[in-house]
């Protein structure tokens, strides 16, 4: 029988960095009971003044050849009793260790100015990223939220590594970009332990591993799908050959009073990703913000490029819609995976706009996840933008929880 993949996560809320690092290393090493090939570390911005000490402290107590991580206003991990915990706005460190037989791992750090133009060849992207394409390549990206050209990088990865899966998040902080931190270390590539304030840290995984994704954008559709009949860049000029603002006003007037109130502050558009799909459900839309309206011509500006011929549907978001959306996606995932090898770990990249602020209680998304996918360590952080695929293309999202579910490709 082939050697089994193992993961362990540890969480500490000790207010001293040394004590927290000692705590998570001791817990994770004793839980793993096998040599660690990979470490993932998420540290809360309460430790912002001490970020430069994190990797040296970890290196003193832990031997792991590859490590990536970043800062977040909150971190997510698993308690010693196996309960998921989302720790917002308090000192905390989440450390995950993986024993990954048969898995190839490679780390890279890219600055915005190093990225090729979007019309460059796949080879130009492969040269910059430094990862040879292979079937089943998967990426975990941790990016600075400032000037990282993350959208260009995602398009480049989709282009140069067709069929790959990419998940991750943009590091968050309680303040300026100087409080953001990205960490990486790759012994085999000669990448020394480093702390970065900008760019993107990436981890490529291939071999005996699969990353499956759930991208919960937290909205429910209202009204009916419509076709964009006239548009310029991100401005919708006609919907079903009608004035968009008139269409929207008619839709809002047809809603219940509760929904009308919600539409005043939590109205979005969902762009249909598969133009040939007739029966639409959660996961078929790319959710984007409404940036503004022009009453003089009745146009609506949204947070993405829109083309004539695309379909869209207006969406509402609140705690109830968000919970319903995640539960539907989890149910669907559970049904699809019944015959597959069990999940071994999960990563969670959740928007700073979710969590306690949205639900009025802690640990909502992670506990709902655990109800469907049991007994796996879960780790992650609260992001300034969440990275995950919708209908085969990768995007940066807002108000979203992206889950990456890791399992061995072969059971034996």
Automatic annotation (TrEMBL):
<keyword id="KW-1133">Transmembrane helix</keyword>
<dbReference type="Pfam" id="PF08495">
    <property type="entry name" value="FIST"/>
</dbReference>
<keyword id="KW-0472">Membrane</keyword>
<dbReference type="InterPro" id="IPR019494">
    <property type="entry name" value="FIST_C"/>
</dbReference>
<dbReference type="InterPro" id="IPR013702">
    <property type="entry name" value="FIST_domain_N"/>
</dbReference>
<protein>
    <submittedName>
        <fullName>FIST N-terminal domain-containing protein</fullName>
    </submittedName>
</protein>
<keyword id="KW-0812">Transmembrane</keyword>
<feature type="domain" description="FIST">
    <location>
        <begin position="35"/>
        <end position="243"/>
    </location>
</feature>
<dbReference type="InterPro" id="IPR016741">
    <property type="entry name" value="UCP018953"/>
</dbReference>
<dbReference type="Pfam" id="PF10442">
    <property type="entry name" value="FIST_C"/>
</dbReference>
<feature type="domain" description="FIST C-domain">
    <location>
        <begin position="244"/>
        <end position="390"/>
    </location>
</feature>
<keyword id="KW-1003">Cell membrane</keyword>
């Amino acid at each position: 029988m082939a050697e089994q993949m193992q993961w362990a996560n540890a969480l500490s809320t000790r207010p001293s960095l040394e004590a927290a690092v000692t705590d998570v290393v001791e817990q994770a090493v004793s839980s793993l009971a096998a040599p660690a090939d990979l470490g993932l570390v998420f540290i809360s911005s309460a430790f912002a003044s001490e970020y430069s000490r994190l990797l040296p402290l970890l290196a003193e107590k832990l031997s792991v050849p590859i490590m990536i991580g970043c800062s977040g206003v909150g971190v997510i991990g698993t308690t010693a009793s196996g309960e998921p915990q989302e720790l917002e706005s308090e000192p905390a460190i989440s450390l995950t260790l993986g024993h990954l037989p048969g898995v190839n791992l490679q780390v890279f750090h890219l600055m915005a100015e190093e990225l090729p133009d979007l019309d460059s060849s796949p080879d130009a992207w492969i040269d910059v990223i430094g990862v040879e394409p292979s079937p089943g390549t998967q990426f975990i990206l941790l990016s600075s939220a400032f000037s990282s050209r993350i959208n260009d990088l995602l398009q480049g990865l989709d282009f140069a590594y067709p069929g790959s899966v990419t998940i991750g998040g943009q590091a968050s902080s309680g303040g300026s970009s100087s409080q953001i931190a990205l960490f990486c270390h790759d012994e085999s590539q000669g990448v020394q332990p480093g702390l970065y304030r900008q760019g993107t840290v990436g981890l490529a995984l291939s071999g005996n591993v699969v990353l499956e994704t759930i991208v919960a954008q937290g909205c429910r559709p209202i009204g009916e799908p419509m076709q964009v009949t006239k548009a310029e860049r991100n401005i919708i000029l006609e919907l079903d050959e009608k004035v968009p603002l008139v269409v929207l006003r008619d839709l809002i007037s047809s809603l219940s009073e509760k929904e009308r109130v919600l539409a005043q502050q939590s109205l979005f558009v969902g762009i249909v990703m598969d133009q040939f799909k007739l029966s639409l459900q959660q996961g078929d839309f790319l959710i984007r913000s409404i940036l503004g309206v022009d009453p003089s011509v009745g146009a609506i500006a949204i947070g993405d490029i829109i083309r004539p011929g695309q379909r869209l549907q207006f969406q509402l978001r609140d705690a109830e819609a968000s919970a319903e959306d995640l539960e539907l996606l989890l149910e669907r995932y559970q049904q699809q995976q019944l015959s597959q090898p069990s999940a071994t770990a999960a990563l969670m990249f959740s928007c700073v706009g979710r969590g306690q602020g949205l639900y009025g209680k802690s640990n909502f998304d992670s506990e709902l996840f655990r109800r469907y996918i049991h007994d796996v360590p879960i780790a992650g952080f609260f992001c300034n933008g969440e990275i995950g695929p919708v209908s085969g293309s990768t995007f940066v999202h807002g108000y979203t929880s992206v889950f990456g579910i890791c399992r061995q490709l072969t059971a034996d």
